[in-house]
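Q: Please design a sequence for this.
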């Protein structure tokens, strides 16, 4: 039988033990940090069914611009935007923590990207905003395109605060680091640094992607090439 631990109960027991043993504040703070991180990871996990849907959408988007093998890497999200007729502009936002935005108005779509962000972050931002385009900039009940603006803020630690942001992040990861090509890379790359360089993403982004696949290996088989 599998025992599922309640992290809140574990935290309380650890804090009480630390106080009794006199190990004090450091141990208490460390345990609280571990529990907070655990809660964050649980909060940021998409339902696997939704994640599989997004993987399929991302692979369909890649097929549109003929990305099929590791020789096509790194993926250029601006190519997809161009193919879709979406304008991409590098701008300076008044608020420095905004990495990008997507706007649909009067039938046209524009993606804005913070020109001061590093190249890898700008690529992820474009892919993220394309995720909003595929997943969230839909039509109303009468079939008319809805006008809308979405902003992506610079979030450290890979956290997103809404379900739509999590979904757009997942689309970006699946688009820039597609599972079929990740599977190939895992058989040939020696480390995360080499893989991140091949895919044109940060080591942090690659680490998060690999951790997600480790938790849900079924993602590797979400699409058939």
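A: Design:
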């Amino acid at each position: 039988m599998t025992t599922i631990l309640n992290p809140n109960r574990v935290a309380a027991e650890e804090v009480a033990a630390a106080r009794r043993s006199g190990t004090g504040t450091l141990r208490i703070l460390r345990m609280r940090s571990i529990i907070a991180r655990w809660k964050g990871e649980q909060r940021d996990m998409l339902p696997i069914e939704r994640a599989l849907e997004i993987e399929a959408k991302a692979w369909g988007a890649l097929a549109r611009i003929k990305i099929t093998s590791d020789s096509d890497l790194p993926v250029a999200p601006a190519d997809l935007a161009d193919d879709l007729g979406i304008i991409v502009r590098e701008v300076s936002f008044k608020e420095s923590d905004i990495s990008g935005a997507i706007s649909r108005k009067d039938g046209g779509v524009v993606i804005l990207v913070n020109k001061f962000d590093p190249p890898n972050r700008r690529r992820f931002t474009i892919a993220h905003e394309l995720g909003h385009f595929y997943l969230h900039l839909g039509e109303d009940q009468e079939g008319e395109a809805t006008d809308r603006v979405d902003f992506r803020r610079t979030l450290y630690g890979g956290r997103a605060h809404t379900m739509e942001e999590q979904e757009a992040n997942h689309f970006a990861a699946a688009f820039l680091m597609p599972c079929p090509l990740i599977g190939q890379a895992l058989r040939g790359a020696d480390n995360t640094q080499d893989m991140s360089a091949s895919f044109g993403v940060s080591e942090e982004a690659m680490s998060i992607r690999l951790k997600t696949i480790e938790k849900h290996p079924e993602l590797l088989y979400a699409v058939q090439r």
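Q: Thanks. Anything notable?
A: The chain has two domains: 7-40, 45-221. The first strand starts at residue 87 and ends at 91.
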